[in-house]
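Consider the following assembly input.
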Amino acid sequence: MKIGFLGTGIMGGPMAGHLIDNGHEVYVDQSHRVPDTLREKGVYLCNSAKEVARQTELIILMVPDTPDVELVLFGEDGVAGGLSDGKIVVDMSSISPVETKEFAAKINKCGCKYLDAPVSGGQVGAKTATLTIMVGGDQDTFEMVLPILKILGQNITLVGGNGDGQTCKVANQIIVALTIEAVGEALLFASKAGANPEKVREALMGGFASSKILEVHGERMITRTFAPGFRINLHQKDLNLALANARKLHIALHNTATAQELFNAVAAQGDDDLDHSAMVLALEKLAEFQIGK
Amino acid sequence: MKIGFLGTGIMGGPMAGHLIDNGHEVYVDQSHRVPDTLREKGVYLCNSAKEVARQTELIILMVPDTPDVELVLFGEDGVAGGLSDGKIVVDMSSISPVETKEFAAKINKCGCKYLDAPVSGGQVGAKTATLTIMVGGDQDTFEMVLPILKILGQNITLVGGNGDGQTCKVANQIIVALTIEAVGEALLFASKAGANPEKVREALMGGFASSKILEVHGERMITRTFAPGFRINLHQKDLNLALANARKLHIALHNTATAQELFNAVAAQGDDDLDHSAMVLALEKLAEFQIGK
């Protein structure tokens, strides 16, 4: 299948590579940096997003934020200019649910289908093709695109209509941030009270406190392994989506707000390129105490 | 073995029953209510905690809070008065880590050993003998008591010295409360944004947001199943231990404080006997919106 892939960075690069490895013809926009590995695999080079859209049946986006998606889709020489009836646009970036609904409506007006399909699992998930994919769109389009998504990930769920994939991703990032804070507060408490945080983590792993975050990020806090992983500045972007949309939706997200403030505090020290488990540094700084010390 | 069991309520009752079922002679204080099921199993009746301690080698406590443990151990006709060299006291209640160290020291002065061994897993875990047990004390005493603990639970960890078992239990309750709030904020966000919370929960179960709480309490929030389970007023007691000890330890637990306030808000509506997943009612009330509606 002829697939356009716009955004071939640390996530999109390996993802596009998997598509080529599985026999698809992948087209990219060479006005942005194209990784050498993709060139070596024989990626097709175009001069704009518009030309990519013209050459392909399915166009995947994997860019940082809402304005980037808007620019790639509707900017000068953007995807919209190269679309014709029956093509499919799949946005795998993590962006605003509200704007996603507007983008989908505009793409539909071009006679094309739209899926929002943000992912969780980070760089490792992209490399090992084990991403969790949360999809918003109609059932028929979902089923058409599913074989392609299966090349990229493992847990693939059609959550609902357009926007619901992005909503689900925001919910994911809320839970992950707040569980990191949960584990951080608990391990700080235990360490400061004189217990061995490694033993505490071990004791808690079997029960109701057990989570993927306690397992992976709890260990990072104890062994002080804060190389990313998933960078704090990306999580700040995601919690900003949560808090900005919560304001529009008239709901109060107390602990999401606090978690964002703690990320901000770590960023204030110049450490926003550390893994998000480094949120614990802000808790520790206030207590003038380090877990496991 | 002759075992004293002080506190035969909804947790202690079934636990004492398991000990009798496994061939032990269990002694209780009949000045408090003794469940009929224990009488039928042939429990031995004494007239005070002191007499229970005198008759047995190992004395287990399972009472609500720190002052209750203090009263049973050191009050009039308490355990301390019936102790003699070489006996072992095991406190399985969930109480303050700081006071636990004092209680242990006083019991040691009577020539006896002390373990703090609080549990997680609730009423169901007590009935099915699948409790998680977090132990503080010395290695030798732990190994002597381990065969008895194995009758009551499954994940049994010696966390460290006296007090560390209680510290670990507090850490457990911090994580559980904050993960409930994480799931509550995320599902409220998703529902209010128009997504189906059931689908969102399903999509998140495979990834980094997955936890025992998302699985069990997330489902409770969606299906509105707030019959306990673990009651809010018990979790309030545990977070009070967390916050009071955090103050003594000079550490700030931002989200633990907020979670307690949300429990307080539910309690203000007279609902503190609901399951702790009902914390979400406070989030919903502020938003005038119900998950899954």
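DSSP finds 13 helices and nine strands in chain B. Ask yourself how this observation constrains the way the partners meet.
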